[in-house]
Amino acid sequence: MMLKCSYKYISIAKVGNSVDENEDSILVPSSSELEREPVIKFAISDGATESSFSKEWSSLLVSCYKDMPFDIANLPLTINAISERWQLKTSAIELPWYAQQKLENGAFATFLGITLNLEEQTFESVSIGDCTLFQVRNDELIRSFPITSIEDFGNTPSLFATNSKFQTDYEKSVKYLKGEAIRSGDLLILASDALAMWLFKRLSEGEKPWLILFILLKYENYQTDFSDWIFNKIKDKEMKNDDISVILINIE
Amino acid sequence: MAYSAEISRNNPSCFLFVIDQSGSMADEYVSIRKPKSEALADVINRMLQQLVIKCAKSEGVRDYYYVGVIGYGANGVRPAFGGSLSGKNLVPISEIANNPVRIEERIKRVPDGAGGLVDTKVKFPIWFDPVADGGTPMTEAFRKANTIIADWLNSHPNCFPPVVIHITDGESTDGDPTEEMNKLTSQASNDGNVILFNLHTNARSVNPISFPGPEVQLPDQYAEMLFNGASFLPDFMRKVAVQEFGLNLSDGAKAFVLNGDIDLIITAIEIGTRPSLQLR
Q1: ipTM
Q2: In terms of residue numbers, what domain contains A150?
Q3: pTM
Q4: Does B98 sit within 8 Å of A96, measured CB to CB?
């Protein structure tokens, strides 16, 4: 039997930044893909604040995940090819001296991609950095990937770099999950680091934090509700002020 | 907890450099055969360039910082930026980015990819030119720094605390600046006190002392005055010192250098400008 899935997602800029300064990018399937395709992909990428043209880099990474191979054997070629596209985009822009010098360092981004095989009832995932996948079954967390506890978060996550000179060793920094089972009723959450940290904090206090996400994203006007909720969490210092993205996938 | 405020465009922080431009700054550093004033101007210009690049994004430069450079010497105490920034005390980093006095081409040695080095031309913006003339009105310089920082804190009460980096090679010629230094380090935002670095540099770098604790034996009263005036290094700066420079510093380590050569001055500036890593 082929499973079905539905999803909700949201991505908002850090408090104080404008909407177009959000450097997170998201890949979700179209409604026609969702209806017809047995294999569907989702991804989140968090562009690094310290580099420039990070949004362009995170955006290319998620869009290329759709059609390009991210397995460890092909990854160097894939990242090179995406990097060339990024360079083509950025070299076309006339820039002042500081932007040119910044550009020489390239852009950086964390990445989390998940491929669902609804026919085989499995999924695989690839990750670099601290965007996190949570798998919830029967209202219990059964897996988080690649981060497994709040202690795993640091200030210097591994990143995909446009400039190979600054790329960390793929073998060490890119993590994979393969052939993991999904069942009807499972909830999959892809979260960028600040939200993922908050989820771990709540989990460590015995809560089931996905319930509030689930409720918030249920409403028609969830963009505003979610933004207000995030704003309050940041104001109360429960959550780091950062671009925040989340995809909630319901397996049916 | 102190020194934890976010540095953002809505809540920027500031760096203020207070530079000795007295006549003795014309003496050459023995190690690099370059006048101290010129070597320090290069260091300040490079630091400004790096800070601009750090704050640059695709749409322009974000004003995470305001930066000032004031010099003291023959002409008294005055802002040291040249060109269209001359006369300005603290300048937003985007204005600095767009207003260098000139952009020079310098030769830089970079790896050639085959294990060797190759000369390459790089752009080197200049905001601040070397000056070395006259006496050392250090007390007046700190009085000016106090005014600049008080104005800044008045309009930015929640900022990450300002860092003031004072670089000198000589003794004050206008009296004891202790009171003004103490006044400066007692100024504070809601996130902590102003951090003052007192960096003493020497052409020959005889018996250098860096970031000492209270147990240090200093050679004279003048060194003690600079040591006593300097701030204790906050935890996050001591972490940078250990992680990036391999300097294991005690809890009581001070933001103080005596008889430092140019490399030690660069290290101290790197440590002192590290709040720039806290950009969000």
Answers
A1: 0.80
A2: 5-251
A3: 0.86
A4: yes
